[in-house]
Design goal:
Arc Repressor Mutant, subunit A; mainly alpha; globular; Rna Polymerase Sigma Factor, Chain: A
C-alpha cells in the first residue's frame, strides 16, 4: 500500500469505523482511541497489506480491539446487562432513541452484527470476515438480536 492509498483509507473509512465503534461501545473518547489504534496498526503493516483489503482489515482490527477492551472492562467491573425488559416503558422521546436504548442492552456479539448489517450495510460474508464468526452464526446472531429488540420494544403500536 502506498502513502496515497493509506491516506485514502483514512479519508474513506475513519468516520465509518468511528460510528460503528461508538454505536457498539458507547464511549466517544474510547471510540476515537480505537480508531487511532487501528490506523497506527495499519501504518505498521502498510507494506504488507493491499489497498483492496484495507476496509475489511480496518473493521476487523477495530472490532477485535473493541472486544479486547470490553473483555478487559468485564474483568474489572461485574456486568449486569443480561436483563431484558418485556417492553420499553420510559416516556416516549423518539423511535430512534428507543432503538438506541435497546441496542445498548443487547450482548456485544448481537449488537455488533446488527450494527454492521443494518447501519453500515455489510453483507453476511463481510460481517463474518470482520467478526471472525461463520456466516451461519452471523445470521443467527442477527436474528436473535432482532428478536431480543422486538421483545424489549414490545408492540410497535405501544411505542408510537
Amino acid at each position: 500500500m502506498t502513502l496515497q492509498e493509506y491516506n485514502k483509507a483514512v479519508d474513506d473509512y475513519a468516520d465509518r469505523i468511528y460510528r460503528f465503534i461508538l454505536k457498539s461501545h458507547g464511549d466517544e473518547e474510547r471510540s476515537k482511541d480505537i480508531v487511532q489504534d487501528c490506523y497506527e496498526k495499519l501504518w505498521r503493516n502498510v507494506a504488507m497489506l493491499d489497498f483492496s483489503k484495507a476496509k475489511s482489515w480496518l473493521f476487523t482490527t477495530a472490532y477485535n480491539t473493541m472486544i479486547d477492551i470490553i473483555r478487559k472492562e468485564k474483568r474489572i467491573i461485574a456486568d449486569d446487562s443480561g436483563d431484558f425488559d418485556s417492553h420499553y416503558s420510559d416516556n416516549y422521546t423518539g423511535i430512534n432513541e428507543v432503538l438506541h436504548r435497546c441496542l445498548e442492552k443487547l450482548p456485544e456479539n448481537k449488537r455488533s452484527v446488527l450494527l454492521l448489517r443494518d447501519y453500515e450495510g455489510y453483507s453476511y460474508s463481510e460481517i463474518a470476515e470482520i467478526t471472525g464468526q461463520t456466516e451461519a452464526q452471523v445470521k443467527i446472531n442477527i436474528y436473535r438480536g432482532r428478536m431480543a429488540m422486538r421483545k424489549m420494544i414490545g408492540k410497535i403500536e405501544m411505542v408510537v
